[in-house]
Design a protein that fits this description.
The complex is a heterodimer of chains A (185) and B (253). By secondary structure, chain A is an alpha/beta fold. Chain A contains five helices and eight strands; from the N terminus they run αββββββββαααα. Chain A folds into two domains: 39 residues; 95 residues, Elongation Factor Tu (Ef-tu), domain 3 (Beta Barrel). Chain B is mainly alpha-helical and 253 residues long. Chain B has one domain. In chain B, α4 packs antiparallel against α9. Chain B is elongated and about 70 Å long. The chains are: A alpha/beta (185), B mainly alpha (253). Chains A and B meet through α1 of A and α2, α6, α7 and α8 of B.
Chain lengths: 185, 253
């Protein structure tokens, strides 16, 4: 009996360990469930963007390259048809000027989108539930190409002979294809 | 030549038929065998808890090498922060189910096959039949169910240990930001990925344990036969797991 009970304890603890591992996988490695640890005190701000590209919930918010918060919610404002991005900023950084500018950038070559904050000069600071008024939308590749095509077709025939303008507009194609891989992802 | 080929082909198909019928037989008996949960618990301990050390050790090193290789590769694109995502998805969806089941076939499958084969060789199974005890219900099904229960749990443990192995190399050694490592992982990994790993490991668990108990049960009742059954268990399990892996992956994508 003693043998079989230690055996059952062994089997039981193995099963418990297995389910604990499974619970860890489902709650700690996905954005479902409660994340343990790294519980920081935060404050919330929102910003309205014309276009957020493929910004996702959980994307970092950074200032001068330093991670200061995360995007927590993305909604559509049905009056103005703008994207309302809610983010939580670390309370450690509570002296961000209220006229700060929020832009959407791309991380590296293949990375996702993130929000970059550029400090303004105001004396008042962003508080909980404030809104960032100055925003700059994500660079959408299709629009960029559209503009480029429009530029080319506008001055295509007459400026073909001059050496200056094809050179300056020629810099656009070299910069434009670089974000392409992340668009196809 | 043609005749040989045909007879071996027919033999292979017949083998598949035998093993499928054997699976049906196991499933039919399973509900009644579930009443003897103490037998199943013993087998969960034998196949699961006793495989734990090898699974955890392998998981740690697989995770570490994933961290190292992943870091090296991602650094070329300047996106080392994606290491967490790469390691997690690689582990959950592919490496954990496949490597766990290969190790499982080597550690637990061979034990099952040789144990049942030896029972066959020493006439213990026939003795049970004489006593009107169904050896399938008393011996085979508890071992089968124990292994089937153990396998997904082992794969989950492998994933967690592997993730910490990757974290150890990526974050502690190579200096990937710990916050990005976990938050990018949490943003990118979906429950679907975990479900895929779970389904895969369950399927591989059924396949590996079925092959093990089948090879043991139908082994030649000689010392040589038991040895052959053990070898066949490992070889067949490995091939079947890799083939099934492709099929299940393509079904999930």
């Amino acid at each position: 009996m003693a043998k079989s009970s230690t055996l059952n304890v062994g089997a039981g603890s193995f099963v418990l360990l297995g389910f604990a591992a499974l619970a860890f996988l489902t709650t700690q490695t996905t954005n479902h469930g409660i994340h343990l640890g790294a519980k920081r005190s935060v404050y919330a701000v929102t910003a309205k963007f014309d276009n957020i590209g493929d910004l996702k919930v959980g994307a970092p918010v950074s200032m001068a390259g330093v991670d200061v918060g995360r995007v927590t919610r993305i909604d559509l404002d049905t009056q103005q048809f703008k994207a309302v991005v809610s983010m939580q900023l670390d309370s450690k950084y509570n002296q961000i000027p209220s006229d700060t500018d929020a832009s959407i950038y791309t991380q590296g070559l293949l990375g996702g989108k993130f929000i970059g904050l550029t400090a303004g000069g105001a004396d008042t600071f962003l508080k909980n539930n404030d809104q960032i008024d100055f925003t700059q939308s994500a660079l959408v590749l299709e629009n960029l190409i559209g503009q480029m095509v429009a530029n080319f077709s506008n001055k295509g025939p007459d400026s073909a002979g001059s050496s200056g303008s094809p050179g300056s507009s020629g810099s656009a194609p070299t910069t434009a294809p670089s974000p392409k891989p992340e668009k196809t992802k | 030549m043609i005749g040989e080929l045909r007879s071996s082909l027919v033999g292979a198909i017949a083998g598949l038929g035998y093993i499928s019928l054997f699976l049906v037989r196991l499933i039919v008996v399973a509900p009644r065998a579930l009443l003897r949960w103490d037998l199943i618990a013993k087998q969960v301990f034998n196949s699961g808890a006793l495989s734990l050390v090898i699974i955890m050790l392998s998981g740690l090193f697989v995770g570490m090498v994933l961290g190292l290789q992943g870091f090296e590769l991602l650094q070329r694109f300047g996106s080392e922060e994606a290491l967490g995502t790469a390691a997690a998805i690689g582990l959950f969806r592919e490496l954990a189910p496949v490597i766990t089941s290969l190790l499982f076939a080597g550690r637990a499958g061979t034990a099952l096959a040789s144990e049942i084969g030896l029972m066959r060789a020493t006439d213990q199974l026939s003795a049970m039949e004489m006593m009107a005890v169904d050896p399938i219900r008393r011996v085979v099904v508890p071992r089968f169910l124990g292994a089937v229960i153990a396998m997904p749990l082992l794969a989950a443990i492998f994933s967690v240990i592997g993730l910490y192995g990757a974290q150890l190399i990526g974050v502690q050694m190579m200096g990937v930001d710990s916050g990005s490592f976990w938050s990018q992982m949490q943003a990118a990994v979906e429950l679907r990925d975990i479900r895929e790993g779970l389904v895969k490991s369950a399927i591989f668990g059924v396949a590996c344990s079925l092959i093990a108990v089948y090879q043991g049960y139908y082994s030649e009742p000689t010392a040589e036969g038991v040895g052959l059954a053990t070898t066949r268990t490992v070889v067949t399990s490995a091939v079947v797991v890799l083939i099934l892996d492709y099929l299940v992956t393509s079904a999930f994508l």
